[in-house]
TrEMBL record, chains A, B:
Record carries keyword Transferase: yes
Protein's gene: hisC
Protein name: Histidinol-phosphate aminotransferase
Pfam families with a match to the protein in the record: Aminotran_1_2
Pathway: Amino-acid biosynthesis; L-histidine biosynthesis; L-histidine from 5-phospho-alpha-D-ribose 1-diphosphate: step 7/9
The protein's assembly and partners: Homodimer.
Organism expressing this protein natively: Thermoclostridium caenicola
Residues recorded as bearing N6-(pyridoxal phosphate)lysine in the entry: K210
EC number: 2.6.1.9
SUPFAM superfamilies: PLP-dependent transferases
Enzyme class: transferase
NCBIfam families in alphabetical order: hisC
A molecular-function term among this protein's GO annotations: histidinol-phosphate transaminase activity
């Protein structure tokens, strides 16, 4: 510790992302990356734009990207905010909408970065227990909360809430900002983005890291009422004039144009997810009904960290959240290719047969 | 304004970066971009890495980049912090080292983003007047300041302070964090980075946007004592797990390896800057002795915004800071190619002959 650290720096416990292994992991299923490459159009566009124009600053407003996303979803560009990964978008929204006098609430099982942001900005928060089956029970959320946040499908459970239930929440709580983190929505679910036109208390966050196979380019989005987006821009423009580099903006634009390619690869992931869930259940292994690009499962009779280790010994890296007692014995297993998942099944069989 | 905006969002006045024009500007000299392209090695590396690996997250610690920069400067990787542009690095350092109970001080003429950061994080600050000739007078800085920040060469004056004077400050104020923003140091000046090994109260910020012609890729750096760097990483890892995408990290690494190329193009800029200053002085136009990749000049008898407009009418975009009364009548003119500067001289001549 340095004598120069601020109080925030001294007290914070940073988020720890899934490992990017340097050793010999044969199958990396720990950070929900897409097993398929970005579209050929995205890669061609990046190669073309790796040119002398990189000496120039990017468009600070990412105008063309905002327009592309707006077209895709039937919004206006003023309803779109892009950022350097959805993590950055989330950080900005915590600071844009909440302060030390506000209360925010989120499930006790969800993306574990939320409490880190709250502590970073000194925002009081309450973690509301999910039900025994991990489903979110909105009736337990405090009336005074200025914000409610959750991922849908939720992380790391994969459980999905249909738009009608979220719309009921938006209507019941018009003065609460409802933030829906749709990082995993494209794996066969319906987005609530269309509700943005109807409710000024809805902010939807998305990422191009998962369904658009661009984790390496760091692209996130928020969509909401123009006044919410204007707020995000005020904070962003007080933090970093240009959050998205030229190549990230271009990759994002091309990815939204190559929709057919992405529907095809994500269709494969959805089919593989359903097959994998069925196989696990057939082996007597409990898993949630995940609608994401991962499966959430618990190997009977094994502590989570032990299960993690036994898989790693067979060259397979998955994720365990030992820090949260409610899910300490569960594993989050990213859906890879059919070959990847066949190997996982083999490895799990070996472990269960010991 | 939305009823959901936090107090910070309501009260902040965002920084306004130099315009990225969409109309017909023939010569863009308003944001200190390099007139020459990134090195061929950087572009080749970007084209090669625009491949299927972009589906994977980048290394969150940018380890190879830290090692490359450390090698370049004779530091250890633990003394290097990379970020998504030096704007992001600056934002992080404001939050990492200062809080509402600390006072920070910087010149009243310097990078105009500093007061925006201070307000974003609620850090009290004092702007200390530079001398009549725009030079920084460290004797006027309050003893209780926990931090002193300045750009060297300073922006937008271009005035340079040699390392010996900064070392005297580091020694005189061992409990003040001295932040030296070296965005423009590579244009013929000596960096204070070597002093990082000797003083734990020094943090040096750099960017690859200017001297390495990579404004479009958003790459910034901080260098300092390992405990200062650790503090920055605590805040960064509580904000965004992966601030630098795969291509930005790769571009930065290649740029540090292609040093000969960059020395050559920046040598051209330095020669052109000296020639341009001499020409302006020969025309009776006051300008500072800028050691940066811009010249700071004041057209006699003209208000700054009028001078800006008259140049723009001739297709030349430069920068004026009308918001700061001390420099309202001055123009910051980026050094472009010899042909660019010849045209600027012609345009200025026309204006002066009216």
């Amino acid at each position: 510790m340095s004598r120069f650290w601020s109080e925030t720096t001294r007290n914070i416990t940073p988020y720890v992302p899934g490992e990017q292994p340097r050793d010999k992991i044969r199958i990396k299923l720990n950070t929900n990356e897409n097993p398929y490459p970005p579209s050929p159009g995205v890669l061609a566009c990046l190669r073309e734009l790796a040119n002398e124009d990189l000496r120039l600053y990017p468009d600070p407003d990412s105008r063309e990207l905002c327009e592309t996303v707006a077209d895709y979803y039937g919004l206006s560009a003023e309803q779109v905010f892009p950022g350097n990964g959805s993590d950055e978008v989330l950080a900005f929204l915590f600071q844009t909408f909440f302060g030390p006098d506000d209360l925010i609430a989120f499930p006790d099982v969800t993306y574990s970065f939320y409490p880190v942001y709250a502590r970073l900005y000194g925002i009081p928060y309450r973690e509301i227990p999910v039900r025994e089956d991990f489903s979110i029970d909105f009736s337990g959320y405090p009336g005074e909360a200025k914000g409610i946040l959750f991922a849908n499908p939720n992380a790391p459970t994969g459980l999905y809430i249909p738009p009608a239930e979220i719309e009921a929440l938006l209507r019941a709580r018009p003065d609460t900002l409802i933030v829906v983190d749709e990082a995993y929505v494209d794996f066969g679910n319906q987005s609530v983005v269309p509700l943005v036109k109807k409710y000024d208390n809805l902010l939807v966050v998305q990422t191009l890291s998962k369904s658009r196979a661009l984790a390496g380019m760091r692209i996130g989005l928020a969509m909401g009422h123009p006044e919410l987006i204007e707020g995000l821009n005020r904070i962003k423009n007080s933090f970093n004039s240009y959050t998205m580099d030229r190549l990230a903006q271009a990759a994002a634009i091309c990815a939204f144009r190559d929709d057919a390619y992405y529907r095809e690869i994500n269709g494969r992931i959805i089919r593989e997810r359903e097959r994998f869930k069925e196989t696990l259940r057939g082996m007597g292994i409990p898993c949630t009904d995940s609608k994401s690009n991962f499966v959430f499962a618990s190997l009977p009779g094994l502590k989570g960290p032990d299960a993690l280790r036994l898989l790693r010994e067979q060259g397979i890296l998955v994720r365990n959240f030992a820090g949260n007692p409610r899910i300490a014995d569960w594993l989050r297993i990213t859906i890879g290719t059919k070959e990847d998942m066949d190997r996982v099944v083999e490895a799990v069989k070996k472990i269960m047969e010991r």
